[in-house]
Design brief:
Helix content: over 70%
CATH topology: Growth Hormone, Chain: A
Number of strands: 1
CATH class: Mainly Alpha
Number of helices: 15
Number of domains: 1
Largest sheet: none
Structural class: mainly alpha
Mean pLDDT: 80
CATH architecture: Up-down Bundle
Low-confidence stretches: 400-413
Shape: globular
Length: 413
Amino acid sequence: MFKQSIWREQNALLYFSGTLLSKLGDKFYIIAIPWLIYELTQSAVSMGVMFLVQTLPFIFVSPIAGVLADRFPRRILLFVSALLQGTLAGVIPVLHILQVLHIWHIYVLGFFIACVGAIFSVVNSTVVPQLFKKEKLMKVNATHQFIDTSSVLFGSALAGILISKIGVYNVLLLDAFSFFPIAISILFLTFLTKETPSKIKSNSWEQLKAGADFLLKHHILGPFTLLILIVNIANGALISMLVYFSREKLFLSSEEVGWVYAGAATAQVAAIAFVNFLGDKGNPIRLMLINIMISAVGIITVALSWNWQTLLLAVAIQSAPVIMFNVLFKTMRQRLVPSHIFGRVNGLISMLGLGTLPLAGFLTGVLAEMIDIRIIFFVMGICSLLVTIRFLRLTKLRLIEQEDELTIPARLG
């Protein structure tokens, strides 16, 4: 699946090995935190609140992170944010050991972990073209997504087993240590261009406005960002309440929940292999829209599931197309956006793409106390499908790559 053109490069070995270890621990966090919240509160509202405080930073911090990425050395931003995430994640088990942990501690720490994570995420996706050449971007993005998905496959199943064997707090401690390998690997990466793309003389607001103007006027990225903003209402409902649905409606164990995530990841790996094999063939816009529609069908199928096997199938149908869409959309914007403004555009896309997630997650938690969660999932899936159909006109648009105003050989992601 992965040719020598990627794996013979030192940057690839360093970047992807560090990413693999950190992503594995990151998946521990995805299962451990909602599991811990449920153990402490048994409340859908509490889980919705946690989802809210973890997602809000990606809305408000992402644009700031984009400005930082275009203004300061990206290596330093990545290194510091990785270390901070690991340190903050380790505070939760420490507070438990000291017997002073309260639910508000988890909310506060989750908020700051998400703030630092938003910075890392934006800078990390911005810097990919500084480590790899343009013709390798699709393969690099597919490889990165493969690592992320493989960590779901093994990390989620392992997290479920470890929670039952060593407890949720020890799993969170393992997650904290997982951030340090990627921080170390960042120090040894070789940037093919300077780490700060250009000298920016305007103030932060003007810089942010320039990124917004570019995105608003772009004939492809603008409409796609709007579509993502809308359909993520349904995705936010599913992501925030999947563990609650698994325990409240299907009465699944931690191991079964882990297998649901891991099994769905198998379908995601197949999706990555397909998009990597497809490369630049065909119409990426049409393929992205088809993926969103299939994902909506998956959300509807989740509402109809009755055991862990059917839930696994439903989550696979929902998540595999999303993974393929992510690879295609990330590669598209890396090719369409000039480097000197890439950080700001990335930050704004991240903000708008996640804009509806926290509110959707919070409101779903509130509604789940009054309305059957199955009905919520079903209605959200139908609405997402209908909205995407309205955007099929985008298939008539053509991709025109932008040439960077700066003369740059290549860049990281």
